[in-house]
Every structure is written in C-alpha cells, then in structure tokens.
Amino acid sequence: MTSRMVAGTRIDLAEGDITRQDTDAIVNAANTTLLGGGGVDGAIHRAGGPSIVEECRRLGGCATGDAKLTGAGRLPARHVIHAVGPVYRDGRHGEAELLASAYRRSLEVAMTHGLRSVAFPSISTGAYRFPIAEAAAIALGTVAAVAAERQGALELVRFVLFSAADFAVYAQALAALPG
C-alpha cells in the first residue's frame, strides 16, 4: 500500500478486491442502468447481494458523470456509490470532463451523507477503455482538488487497483501530484 496526505485527506493506493473494503462507502464503476454488469460492477452486485439491485431499480438509472448512493447489502462497507464513467471514444468527446465529474460527484454524494472514507476502483479503464495513465491523473487530481476545497471533510480516499500494473500507474500519478 502507498499513501499520501493531501490537504488533510489520506489518499491510499492498494492492490486488491474492492468488495472487501471496510470504508464508509465503496464506489461502483456502474453503467447508466445501475442494474449490474461485468467487471467491478458485477463483482459488487454479486458480493453485496440482491438488496443493492433492488435499491438501484428505485433510482431510475444514472447519467454519465453522475453518482447515486445505495446501501451495501452484505459488503463490509456501509454504502455503495454508483458512479457512471464515460465510454472512451477518442478523447475528444468530453471523456476527461465526464470522468472527472464521476469522481467529483462520488465525493460530493459521500460528503452530503456524512461519509468520511471512500474506496474507488479505476473507473472507465476496463470495458470502457479509458487509457489508464490519463484516467489515473484525472482521478487523483480530482480527489486532490476536492480535498483542498473541502479540507477536513474526507479522512480517507483509497484507490483499490485490480492489478500490479494498474497499481504502478496510479503510484506514478500519485507521486506526480503537486504539493
């Protein structure tokens, strides 16, 4: 695990399984239906059980770049924040802005509900094909900006990376953050 303090918020990087995190919330890299899918989305729905999809049905979907909250079912976390990142086309269709928005909105949802610790996957870098180095810089930059704006609102933001290669890319991006 690698850590860094940014404006009073500890940012952790860990390689592992996001469904095992005991933070106040974990973030699901969801699709716009919120009804489950592959990758992280499918893993969270399977591990959390049917109560998550039941709550998601009542939310009526979620726009790309936005985020919504549910309970966490059988997961160790208390809540799941379902964030919808963009499908990467060519980088010229607002993908970076939408990805930053998905991270920002996830943190805003967490803070609105008084949550102090959040674990993120690498949103949009799997089936949605967002280049991981660019995505890591956007993710960490957005978290650092929110931490600076809302000093003390978040204690811990953890990025849980699925592979050693993804962890290494995020570690480089974390080291490159100013300050």
Helices and strands, with pairings:
Blueprint: E1 2-6, E2 9-15, E3 25-30, H1 39-48, H2 50-59, E4 67-71, E5 79-84, H3 95-112, E6 117-120, H4 132-149, E7 156-161, H5 164-176
Parallel strand pairs: 2-7, 3-5, 3-6, 6-7
Antiparallel strand pairs: 1-2, 4-5
Description of the structure:
With 179 residues, this protein is α/β, with parallel strands linked by helices. It has one domain: Leucine Aminopeptidase, subunit E, domain 1. Helices cover 39% and strands 22% of the residues. It is built from five helices and seven strands. It has helices at residues 39-48, 50-59, 95-112, 132-149, 164-176, and strands at 2-6, 9-15, 25-30, 67-71, 79-84, 117-120, 156-161. It has a seven-stranded mixed beta sheet with strand order 1-2-7-6-3-5-4, sandwiched between helices. Helix 3 runs parallel beside helix 4 (132-149). The mean pLDDT is 97.
Summed over residues and divided by their number, the pLDDT gives a mean of 97
Distance between the termini: 20 Å
CATH fold node name: Leucine Aminopeptidase, subunit E, domain 1
Query: Cα-atom Rg, whole angstroms?
Result: 15 Å
Q: What is the tally of helical segments? A: 5
Largest sheet: 7 strands, mixed
| Class inferred from helices and paired strands | alpha/beta
**Helical residue percent band:** 25-40%
Q: Write down the oligomeric state.
A: single chain
Shape: globular
Strand content: 15-25%
Helices and strands, in order, run as EEEHHEEHEHEH
